[in-house]
């Protein structure tokens, strides 16, 4: 019910994971059909990069503004931080606070004064700014890190590399938000280099009761997870795709014309092989470099 800095950081990570899910399953899949010259009607979907940018933009994102407030000399409090956000995002459609609501003449008693609200992909979340600055400042003092390093213990040294006197820096230690943003960027880079599979968990009811499904709750989750668009792309698209070479190598024994050796191009070989198998033409699409097969049962 009460969301602070920790929940804000967690939701930022969720937003980034949703972004990679959208890019890999909706955007890239559709782009592949276009690239391969397959006839395709684009499926519209909500791209949440606008929300990610609101949080992580290095010049004027929420995390950057928080860092700026933490480094500012003089009396620093959350009020100045919230005022800065209100000025920056006065017209942003995924951000609102009491002040921006007043400017838009919106009367909403559910949004208290010390708070801002973000319209995340999964719904609206209200954050209380109290404690944001204190929690964002990494207050592990330099001499404590150096003491840990001096303990001559391998694990401790790996946990406190900044304690190495040879790497001693006079710069301020990085903030918690900065460290988390860097950590999320590393995770994203790692995920982009893989071929991930997804398991989507749907919460069936709010009471943790067996065999009870609340249709409104399930539907809301299916909508905000982008699963509707995913099903549309999958239904309109092709369950299986493979480069002509490996496809022919794997299935060439199914036709007397391609087995044991095929002398033409890989694509021609795949066309001959599939013609001999009498597969309905609507099940197949021949791309520039790959064969596309519509339904799993055909494979």
Automatic annotation (TrEMBL):
In this chain, the stretch annotated as Actin-binding covers 184-206
Please name the Gene3D superfamilies in this protein's record.
1.20.58.530, 6.20.240.20, Kinesin motor domain (3.40.850.10)
Q: Which PANTHER family match?
A: MYOSIN, UNCONVENTIONAL MYOSIN-IA
Which GO BP terms apply? actin filament organization; actin filament-based movement; endocytosis; sensory perception of sound
Q: What is the lineage of its organism?
A: Eukaryota, Metazoa, Chordata, Craniata, Vertebrata
User: Where in the numbering of this chain does the Myosin motor domain appear?
Assistant: 1-299
UniProt family annotation: Belongs to the TRAFAC class myosin-kinesin ATPase superfamily. Myosin family.
In Swiss-Prot or TrEMBL terms, this protein is called MYO1A protein
